[in-house]
Amino acid sequence: MGLPSDPNGDATVSPTKQGTQDMAYENILYGVEDRIASITLNRPEKRNALSFALRREVVDALRTAERDDAVSVILLSGAGPAFSAGYDMGPDGASGEPPDGWVKSEHFDSWTDQYARSCVRDWLTIWDLLKPVVAKVHGYCLAGGSELMSMCDIAFAADDAQIGYPPMRGMTTPDTLYFPWKVSMAQAKYLQLTGNCVTGREAAAMGWVAKSFPADELDDQVMRELRPMSQIAPDLLAANKASLNQIYELMGFRAALQTGWQWHVLSGQLRPGAREFGKVLREHGLRAAIEWRDAPFRREGFGP
User: What share of the chain has pLDDT > 70, as a percent?
Assistant: First the structure.
């Protein structure tokens, strides 16, 4: 589960260099240049909160890039001051047509958690894609944003990025159970049991992201990594990605992720006190709900 988007933050859209293959989207920017397809989350006023509409466009852009022979590598980033604040649970974020594969039925509504299932399904698109997807992370990368980042094949982050999953402090388990696959057992348990954030530099040290760079060097350093990578034959990149993924599949990766919706519904609907965050949110607003959830950690100096 993610955070409701924060409509009170100010944000500036960073200019994005687009190539000749631009496509019209409402929630993302898409372009291709020098064999690199760029997908930019473009809801900066909402800290790039992951609404149904944005997620649908990301999945569509990923598949578009996969089909394009002019593309070797896909770069995923965020406009404005943050990569993503998480899933958009506000009235606009979860409205409209739900993601593909959503089963609306009285037989399943109460126990299957179609929301969590849809999140896993969307991000497995990245896993199954023939082409590598690289995340470039700056600012906040929280909750669902960290799921999106963690499902990418490679992640680079700014040294001062804030990466974590605060909703686990009082809401639910993750929709996408990536922690055991990205970091050591010690770090996985620390991060998931506390909901604490780490910086991009700390995430690189624990292996959560591949590398981190000073914030003012992030764009240049990521392109330095991608330019030569984009010159590798796409079929060879696909073979290397698939051979690695197959090993993780044999280790149970996909089966483990598919248990996420079960734990999500247990922790978010069936456990005692599961609805307390929502109650505070409805009665007192977002800031009060986040204070209820995060205050004990903030008193000890843990963000965000």
Answer: 91
- CA–CA distance from 149 to each of 105, 142, 206, 281 (Å)? 31, 10, 15, 27
Q: Give pLDDT, residue 304.
A: 81
Interatomic CA distance for residues 107 and 276, integer angstroms: 26
DSSP SS3 for 29: strand
In which residue ranges of the chain is pLDDT below 50? 1-20
What is the Cα–Cα distance from 206 to 197, expressed in whole angstroms? 13
Sheet containing 36-41: order of strands: 28-33, 36-41, 73-78, 133-137, 154-158, 211-213
CATH architecture label of 28-299: Alpha-Beta Complex (3.90)
Using the 8-state DSSP alphabet, how is residue 231 labeled? T
Q: Provide the residue ranges of all domains of the chain, joining segments of one domain with +.
A: 28-299
According to DSSP, the residues that pair with 142 across neighbouring strands are: 164
Helical H segments across 129-182, by residue range: 144-151, 179-182
Q: List helix spans (H) across the chain.
A: 52-67, 114-128, 144-151, 179-182, 185-194, 200-205, 218-229, 234-250, 253-257, 260-265, 276-284, 286-299
